[in-house]
Amino acid sequence: MTDTFVFVYGTLKRGFFNFESFVRPAIERGKAEYLCDGLTVASDLCLVLRKERQVPALYRATPGETGYRVPGEVFRVDADVLKALDILEGVAEANYYREEVEIELTTAAPAAGWAPGDVVRCQIYFKVFDASLAALDKVPEYTAALHAAYSSRRGTPMREILACIVGPVDSEQEQQ
């Protein structure tokens, strides 16, 4: 498996909608692996919930705005899963962009030989900034209580995303 580490802070965290729809199938096929929990080293970040569907969005604080470190989870993914995540996050449509950041681990990752306090470089998805984001209430962490209000724009997994993870998908598989 290609060692691409991805840090997730929202609906891709374990137990949440996009994890269950996309990451769990990748884990079951050996294409992804949960490693540990972590916290962004950068403290200039803001996590907000976009009003229309309560979608978590991360951006860098604007001048005069107070940012903070954001907690989340570290996964190792292969190139197919990384491509699927780029599709999910709308990278080609300039909805989110992916960047490498430093993550301080808060739990051990025995599979990677990491200990709490280690700092690793991970890919993370940032929302392409527009001024409306700064007007939203900041949340310190995306939790199950916040996730309860989340509404996916896709009731079932998209074929293009699943095809990256599991291969060609027919309509019956997509509904499962």
Automatic annotation (TrEMBL):
<dbReference type="GO" id="GO:0061929">
    <property type="term" value="F:gamma-glutamylaminecyclotransferase activity"/>
</dbReference>
<feature type="domain" description="Gamma-glutamylcyclotransferase AIG2-like">
    <location>
        <begin position="6"/>
        <end position="126"/>
    </location>
</feature>
<comment type="similarity">
    <text>Belongs to the gamma-glutamylcyclotransferase family.</text>
</comment>
<dbReference type="InterPro" id="IPR039126">
    <property type="entry name" value="GGACT"/>
</dbReference>
<dbReference type="InterPro" id="IPR009288">
    <property type="entry name" value="AIG2-like_dom"/>
</dbReference>
<feature type="active site" description="Proton acceptor">
    <location>
        <position position="89"/>
    </location>
</feature>
<dbReference type="InterPro" id="IPR013024">
    <property type="entry name" value="GGCT-like"/>
</dbReference>
<dbReference type="GO" id="GO:0005829">
    <property type="term" value="C:cytosol"/>
</dbReference>
<protein>
    <recommendedName>
        <fullName>Gamma-glutamylcyclotransferase family protein</fullName>
    </recommendedName>
</protein>
<dbReference type="InterPro" id="IPR036568">
    <property type="entry name" value="GGCT-like_sf"/>
</dbReference>
<dbReference type="Pfam" id="PF06094">
    <property type="entry name" value="GGACT"/>
</dbReference>
